[in-house]
Every structure is written in structure tokens, then in C-alpha cells.
Design brief:
248 residues; five-stranded parallel beta sheet; 35% helix; 16% strand
Length: 248
């Protein structure tokens, strides 16, 4: 089985790549999702059996400050990749990694039946990617939503005590995605941790992060911060899929 992972140099992609035998993990100069010619050249040459599409411009501030690049990468890039996938191998399995940021964050918890309504441009671009994948004629495809961080020292001095999620560490989410691929699940699926926690509680689970200070979302906004998704907590309607335990 030939597996192509876009964005394999990122925190999640590098963990997923460990779980497959000799996956295709092109760098940007080999496959630039924003460049249609680059995508078609690579995908048609390699004809993968599975594509795990993680490559994206992530982070709310970068997407707000460079909307054109965010659109070309997250929206046009997804279209280029799934179109090339269909042309190269109509039996290919395509998995698109999305985000809880497609929601407005005002509910306590979201399942797959809840209506997306993004608070920011990043969420909008990821939602548009979902729409492209869902509407595509490729038969075997899945959209996954989940939120994660790398299990490493918290990269900031503070963490929100009033932003919440059902978080996993990157290696936890990677293992769950491997299960999804092995099952060849099709449709929309929330991969969720087994408990809701604040970002500050999450930071305290990270190694060497005992001194991280709690900060408030309202304070962040008053200091000129971009609007964020306040609550990223997920549930799933798919009872056959367990809620995964974050590794502590």
C-alpha cells in the first residue's frame, strides 16, 4: 500500500509517518499543494493508494494576515490534491484533516450533526476544504476533525484558562488516524479525547511546563488579539468509535 502524507514535516504528520511502512513524505519543493502543476506532477507520478492530507496554513493570526495565501493553500490546495487523486487512482482513499475551528465555539460541545459557523478566516478555509472533499466524486474519502498539540514543552509563557477542548497529543491523534485509515472509514468523524479541559490544564500535562501562567480570552482580546474559537470540545455520533485517552 502506497501512502502519501502531505504536511508530513509538521507535528501531526511526522507522528503519522512513523506508523506506515515507507510512506511518501514529499517536501514543499517536491509537492506544493498551492501549485496545481506541482500537485498533478507528483500524484500522477506516484499514484498513491492512500492520501492523508494535512498540509495547510494553520494558525489564526497567519491566516488573518495573509488571506490570499491561506485560501490558495487550504482551499485551492485541497481541490488540486483530490482532483489529482481521482485522476491518478479512482480507488484511492483520501483523508482530509480538518479542525474544530469550523465551529463558532459558543456551545459546550459539538458533534458531527452540528452546523459549522467559523469565527475567523482559518476556520472558513478549513470548512471550504471539507465542502470540496464531501462534494467530490471520489468514492472513498473521510473528513476528520480533532485538536491536538505536540507533547513537548509549552511554547508560550501563558495558556488560556477559559478556552476548552477535548485535546489529544499529536501521537495520540496519529494513532487514531491510523485506525481510521485501516478501517477505511468514509464520511465525517470527530476524533476526540475522553475529557474536556482548558488549554491551561493541557499545558500542565506537557513536559517541563509547570510555570505556564493562566491567561483569559477576554484579556487577550482587549490586548488586540484576533478572535479565536473559544470552545473546541468535540463529541461523536459514531458510537463504534471510542473517545481516545490523552497520554499523560
Amino acid at each position: 500500500m502506497k501512502v502519501l502524507i502531505t504536511g508530513a514535516g509538521g507535528k501531526l504528520g511526522s507522528e503519522i509517518a512513523k506508523l506506515f511502512v515507507a510512506p511518501l513524505v514529499p517536501k514543499r519543493d517536491e509537492l506544493d499543494v498551492a501549485d496545481k502543476r506541482s500537485v498533478y506532477s507528483y500524484v500522477l507520478a506516484h499514484k498513491p493508494d492512500v492520501i492523508i492530507h494535512l498540509a495547510a496554513l494553520t494558525g489564526i493570526p497567519p491566516c488573518e494576515t495573509n488571506r490570499e495565501l491561506a485560501w490558495r493553500t487550504n482551499v485551492d490546495g485541497t481541490r488540486h490534491l483530490i482532483d489529482a487523486c481521482y485522476e491518478a487512482n479512482k480507488d484511492c482513499y483520501f483523508l482530509y484533516m480538518s479542525t474544530p475551528c469550523v465551529f463558532d465555539g459558543k456551545k459546550e460541545i459539538y458533534d458531527e450533526n452540528d452546523i459549522p459557523y467559523p469565527e475567523h478566516f482559518y476556520g472558513l478555509t478549513k470548512l471550504m476544504g471539507e465542502v470540496i472533499v464531501d462534494a467530490h466524486q471520489l468514492k472513498d474519502k473521510a473528513v476528520i476533525r480533532g485538536n491536538f498539540v505536540q507533547k513537548a514543552k509549552w511554547p508560550h509563557q501563558g495558556a488560556f484558562e477559559d478556552r476548552f477542548g477535548t485535546y489529544l497529543f499529536a501521537h495520540d491523534l496519529a494513532g487514531a488516524i491510523k485506525e481510521v485509515v485501516d478501517a477505511r472509514f468514509t464520511g465525517l468523524l470527530h476524533i476526540t479525547g475522553d475529557k474536556k479541559m482548558s488549554m491551561h490544564d493541557l499545558a500542565k500535562l506537557c513536559p517541563e511546563s509547570g510555570g505556564v501562567k493562566p491567561i483569559s480570552y477576554e484579556g487577550y482580546l482587549k490586548n488586540g488579539g484576533f478572535k479565536l474559537t473559544k470552545n473546541m470540545s468535540l463529541d461523536t455520533i459514531h458510537g463504534e468509535w471510542k473517545r481516545f485517552k490523552i497520554s499523560e
